[in-house]
Amino acid sequence: MENENNSKLDALAKCVLKQEKDIK
What we know:
92% of the residues lie in helices and 0% in strands. By secondary structure, it is mainly α.
């Protein structure tokens, strides 16, 4: 269960980083 949570957090973090990159 902890692993699944980490995967979701990792995907979310990548999504946020991608959005920040697009804005700049």
